[in-house]
Structures are given as structure tokens and as C-alpha cells.
Design goal:
The structure holds 2 protein chains of 2 kinds.
Chain A: H1 5-20, H2 22-25, E1 38-44, E2 47-52, H3 65-81, E3 85-87, H4 97-112, E4 118-123, H5 130-150, E5 158-164, H6 175-181, E6 183-188
Chain B: E1 3-4, E2 37-40, E3 46-50, E4 54-56, H1 65-75, E5 79-81, H2 99-104, E6 109-118, E7 121-130, E8 135-145, H3 149-165, E9 174-181, E10 188-195, E11 202-207, E12 211-216, E13 222-227, E14 234-239, E15 245-249, E16 255-260, E17 266-271, E18 278-283, E19 289-291, E20 299-304, E21 311-315, E22 322-326, E23 334-335, E24 343-348, E25 354-361, E26 364-371, E27 377-379, E28 386-391, E29 397-404, E30 407-414, E31 420-423, E32 429-435
Helix pairs in contact in B: 1-3
Classes of the chains: A alpha+beta, B mainly beta.
């Protein structure tokens, strides 16, 4: 998985601190408990995993406040970006308030990764007419696209397509099924 | 009175007109047929007796001419036909018609006739009588190849219909529609063309991706439609006899809602290449487009009115979808519908009398029509999740798609909503009906 620039910096700083010892990096690490037996063995989700034999069973509370904060933000951003479907009320393309933070996270990610491509697929529920719903699905996808651009993504990274009512996420005519079909999906390429 | 007509799985045969030539993609040529189920009779139906025709020589297998004619006349909603079992006599020519028998049975018209097999042709001689006036009003012969008995029967139905009502019959016209069956990887969309009674259905395009909005050229030789086979919507023009097709619109964004001009030389369409859905006119020879609407709202679902030469379309420029009218291409649009927050997909009757459209009332979507002279609106369907109205070429019938038991079926009503029959598919879903033109 691609790491953002800030995550890479974080991981680099961390591993530099481990290899060189805390004093030479100037980091404020309480790392006396970490000797050469303990090494960074993997990085995932903006955090770094430590493994190895620590001998006396001392706990690993060695991160600074800044690093903890950064790790938390990374995790939050990732959690936001796990959401890739956005829902709409009947016959509108208005983006819901709760979607905005998620979209900002996606926009930042796209801004940080200019080569990342994403396809925005717009949909409508089955009520009303097919051709109008095709245009409505497109308007929803365009609304999402505009929001992402305003928040840092570039137009060239995005492709939009509408399926109208033709590809429902959930079959059926209940209110709940229909609510799940009025959506835009982000498909990262 | 409700009645099921029986459905035979007939194999496809070549017609004299060559309607059923050259399939596009599929190997086989017969397909799931639509079944007719008559759901309501019209209140003012004219009683007509279609007496089973006498036969001379070996007749081909399949439905009898008189039973096809009987089905046609009933399907129009304007006639009530007498069951042959109730007939007191079975004449085959005028001199055998005893009018008092038919008056006693309450009949207004009687059709009698005879079929003669001669080599590979079947000839029909038929006569239509006005029972009260005791007068013959039609006496004709017609013939077709032995493989085209249905064509012969529908021709006779058209002649009867015209003699009695003065309007052209639509029994020889075709329907185009899309069927959907299967799930997941096995899902298949099929564009099909059938007779107006659902028989002799033929697949014209088979795809794993959606097919929408089939539209008949005015000469009945081509279908324009929207296909997602390339991953996004594009408009194709498909010539039926050769199977050849051209992709005429594949611009960025939408390519949708094709509608033919009366001379068959241009298509109206919805494109969004300039940023939002607008209506364009494309000259098919040059592929040049002219933009007809210019508004940030969604403008789509255009339809030419061949009677008054204007264009109807759907626009949500006033907040929600409503029907608008341009007196000529590019003119300032005028709003037509006001009574509900959702009115879309206009289809004028091409007689200058009505425009039909999808109309929301409370939580239901019906088909409604507006009287173009008075502005009066009326809902003409009792079903509640209706889409895709298409008017018959004589303006007397309307076909549309509606949800029934979780699947989509086609339903035909008389234009004032008086009578109805439905055509569910043998399996899966049927949608997007388009009524073909009269071609004679």
C-alpha cells in the first residue's frame, strides 16, 4: 500500500532513532529499554511495529507526544478513507454534512499522490425515469468531483461515469434498499 | 372479463418483408416470448364475431388466422369478441350469414372468411358485415407465404379495425424492448423486437451491460439505443435488416435519450460533454451537433412532436423534473406540467392531441397525459411504479413498463386508460418498450 509522504518521514525518523541510538538523533526518546535486541520489523497504517527480545519485559511507551499525535491522525485519515461510498437524498445531488470530512481526507490523499487515479461512479434509485436518473447519477458524481478538486485533488486524476438506476447496490423497492442505491462510489484504480 | 390466450413457442420464420433477418450477436434466433394476459376489458367495447375461417387445403401448424384476429381485436380494448362455442352457425361467406342469429347474440359486426392453401402460399378471402344494417362493409382477399400466416392475420385485423373505426390499425406494427435475466456473471441484457402481441420475438443485441432507450426510426428500419457495452453510455444506430450498426455518439459524459426527427435524418440526444446534461440535435450524415438547450439544470428525454413540429423534454430547471416544450429547436422552452413535483419522459401522440409522461402522485409513479388544447391533466394508469410510456402510432394505445411481484412487465392500456393487458416475460424482467411505426 502506498504510504503518504508524512508517514514515510515518520517511519524513517523512527528507524533512524533505533539504529543510531537516541542521543545522536536528538530525539526525545525514552528508549533505554530498547537495545539492539529490539528492531522495527514492519510498518503498516502509519505505525511501526517493534519485535524482538526485550529481556526484562519492560513496556514500550516510547513515543513522544508529537509522534503519538501524528500516528493518531494517520489512523484517523485512513479510517476516513476506508469510506468510499457516499449517499444522497431522493432527487438531489447535495453532499451530506457527514460526508465532508471523509471527502477532505480523500482529497488530501489524492493531492499527496498525484499519480493516483480514481473513478467516480454515480447512481440513482429505481423511482422515476431511467434517462433522468442517468443524468442525476452524473450530477451526483460531478458534485463529489468538484468537492474533491476544491480540496486539493486535480481533475486529471478523476474519471466520472453514471449508471443511473441500472446498477443498484441492493435489489428491492423498500426505503432502505433505495437509500443504499442513491450513491456515488469511489473506485481507486 | 379476463382471459388468458394460449402461448405457443413458435420458431422464427422469415417474413416476406425481411423483418427478421440477420441477428446481431446471438447464435440462436428464438427467444423468451411475451405472454399476453388481458387484465381489464373496456366498458364500451363493440361486440364483434370473428367466425373461424373455412379451410381448403393443408394449413401450416400454429395459431389459426381467426384466433389471431380475435386476439388482436380484443387487445385493442375497443372490441369484445364472441367465443366460437357460442356461435349459432359458422358461415364462411356472406350468403350464409343469417343476420337474425347474430342480432340475437348482441353482435354488431360479423367477420367470415375462407383460407385456401395453394403451393407455398395461403390466400384469405374475408367479408365484414354490419349486423344491424345487414350490409357488407368490407370484402377482400389477401395472401402470404405459408411461413407468414401471422402477418396475414394481422393485416386482416388492421383492415377490420380501419373499416369499423376509421383509424389505422396497429396490429402489424412491432415492439422493441429490453429483457434482463440472470444474476452476477450470468446477467444478460437483450434488445428484442417482436410482433405487437409479443410473438415472433427476435434478439437484436445481447450484452452483459445495460441497454436503454430503444427508439424506432420513422421508416421502421432502424433502432437507435443507448448501450453501456464500452463501460459508459454511447448511442448506436442499428439497421435491422442487415444487422449493421454505427456508434454515433460517444462523447465524454452522457450519450443518451436518442429521438428521431420525422425525416429520419437527425437524432435528438442528451449529451453532457459541456459539463451538464443538455439536449442536442445530431445530423446523422455529417455527425455534426447543434446544442438546443443552454441551462445549468438537467435537460434530457427529448421527443419530437411530428404533429406540431416542436420538441418536448424533461428539465429540472424549476427545482424538480417537469415537462417543457420548445416550439422549434432551440426556442425558449415553455413549461407544460404543474400539478406534481415529478413529471418526466414526455411522449407526444403525434396527432397533436396529448402528451404522455411519467407523473408522481404521493409515493406512486403513474403514467399521465395532458390535453394539449385544454391543458387538462389526467392519470391513466392504476399501477404504481410506471416508466417508459410509448404511444401506438394511431394514438389509441399506450405501452409502458411497470413493477409487478418484484419484476418489470410491459402493460398496454388504451390511451384513456380504459382497458389493459400485460405482457410479462417468460423469465426475468422486461422494460423500455418502444412502439414501432406503421409501415405500409
Amino acid at each position: 500500500m502506498k504510504l503518504s509522504f508524512s508517514t514515510k518521514v515518520f517511519a524513517m525518523v523512527l528507524s533512524a532513532g533505533l539504529v543510531a541510538g537516541c542521543s545522536s538523533t536528538g530525539e526525545n526518546m525514552e528508549d533505554e529499554a530498547y537495545g539492539s535486541d529490539v528492531q522495527a520489523i514492519g510498518g503498516d497504517d502509519g505505525s511501526t511495529v517493534y519485535g524482538g527480545d526485550d529481556g526484562d519485559g519492560v513496556s514500550s511507551g516510547v513515543l513522544s507526544d508529537e509522534e503519538r499525535q501524528a500516528a493518531r491522525e494517520q489512523a484517523e485519515q485512513q479510517a476516513l478513507r476506508d469510506i468510499t461510498t457516499f449517499y444522497f437524498d431522493f432527487d438531489t445531488s447535495e453532499i451530506k454534512q457527514e460526508a465532508r470530512d471523509v471527502l477532505v481526507a480523500h482529497a488530501r490523499y489524492l493531492a499527496d499522490n498525484p499519480r493516483q487515479q480514481v473513478r467516480l461512479e454515480g447512481h440513482a434509485d429505481d423511482r422515476g425515469t431511467k434517462e433522468y436518473n442517468l443524468a442525476l447519477g452524473e450530477r451526483r458524481a460531478n458534485a463529489i468531483q468538484r468537492f474533491l478538486i476544491v480540496n486539493g485533488a486535480s481533475r486529471g486524476q478523476m474519471e466520472t461515469v453514471s449508471y443511473g438506476e441500472e446498477k443498484p447496490a441492493v435489489r428491492g423497492t423498500s426505503d432502505s434498499a433505495r437509500a443504499q442505491n442513491r450513491r456515488v462510489e469511489l473506485i481507486f484504480q | 372479463m379476463t382471459r388468458k390466450t394460449s402461448c405457443h413457442k413458435t420458431t422464427v420464420k422469415m417474413l416476406l418483408t425481411g423483418w427478421l433477418a440477420a441477428m446481431m450477436l446471438s447464435a440462436g434466433n428464438a427467444s423468451a416470448e411475451l405472454l399476453i394476459r388481458i387484465t381489464e376489458g373496456a366498458n364500451s367495447a363493440i361486440p364483434v364475431s370473428v367466425v373461424p375461417f373455412a379451410e381448403s387445403g393443408a394449413m401450416p401448424p400454429g395459431d389459426k388466422v381467426s384466433s389471431i384476429v380475435q386476439g388482436d381485436l380484443t387487445m385493442s380494448g375497443e372490441f369484445r369478441t364472441l367465443e366460437p362455442s357460442k356461435m349459432l352457425s359458422l358461415p364462411s361467406k356472406g350468403s350464409d350469414v343469417y343476420f337474425r342469429d347474430w342480432r340475437m347474440l348482441g353482435q354488431r359486426y360479423v367477420l367470415v372468411g375462407e383460407l385456401t392453401r395453394s403451393g407455398d402460399r395461403v390466400q384469405a378471402r374475408y367479408e365484414l358485415f354490419d349486423v344491424n344494417q345487414e350490409k357488407r362493409i368490407l370484402g377482400e382477399t389477401a395472401a402470404a407465404g405459408v411461413g407468414s400466416v401471422r402477418t396475414l392475420a394481422h393485416h386482416i385485423s388492421d383492415r377490420i379495425y380501419e373499416a369499423i373505426t376509421g383509424e389505422p390499425g396497429v396490429f402489424s406494427t412491432k415492439l422493441a424492448y429490453v429483457t434482463v435475466s440472470g444474476e452476477g456473471d450470468q446477467m444478460r441484457y437483450r434488445l428484442q423486437v417482436s410482433d405487437v402481441d409479443g410473438k415472433r420475438a427476435n434478439i437484436r443485441l445481447e450484452s452483459r451491460e445495460p441497454i436503454l432507450s430503444p427508439a424506432w426510426s420513422p421508416d421502421g428500419k432502424k433502432l437507435a439505443y443507448v448501450s453501456f457495452e464500452t463501460g459508459k453510455p454511447a448511442i448506436y444506430v442499428h439497421e435491422l435488416s442487415s444487422g449493421q450498426r454505427d456508434k454515433v455518439a460517444d462523447f465524454p459524459g452522457l450519450n443518451s435519450a436518442p429521438a428521431w426527427s420525422e425525416d429520419g435524418k437527425s437524432l435528438l440526444m442528451t449529451l453532457s460533454r459541456d459539463g451538464n446534461a443538455e439536449i442536442y440535435q445530431m445530423d446523422l450524415a455529417s455527425r455534426k451537433t447543434t446544442k438546443l438547450t443552454n441551462h445549468w439544470a438537467i435537460d434530457t428525454e427529448p421527443a419530437w412532436d411530428y404533429a406540431n413540429k416542436g420538441i418536448y423534454f424533461t428539465s429540472d430547471r424549476s427545482g424538480g423534473p417537469q415537462i417543457y416544450f420548445m416550439e422549434r429547436p432551440g426556442a425558449e422552452p415553455r413549461r407544460i406540467t404543474f400539478g406534481s413535483r415529478y413529471n418526466a419522459r414526455p411522449r407526444p401522440d403525434n396527432k397533436g392531441e396529448y402528451v404522455y409522461y411519467v407523473h408522481q402522485r404521493d409515493r406512486a409513479f403513474h403514467i399521465a397525459r395532458t390535453n394539449l388544447k385544454t391543458g387538462d391533466e389526467s392519470i391513466i394508469t392504476r399501477t404504481e411504479s410506471d416508466e417508459s410510456p410509448s404511444v401506438s402510432p394511431n394514438g389509441r394505445l399506450l405501452i409502458y413498463a411497470t413493477g409487478q411481484n418484484g419484476a418489470s412487465v410491459l402493460t398496454v392500456v388504451s390511451a384513456d386508460g380504459g382497458a389493459a393487458y400485460s405482457l410479462p416475460a417468460a423469465d426475468g424482467d422486461v422494460r423500455e418498450p418502444a412502439w414501432g411505426p406503421i409501415t405500409r
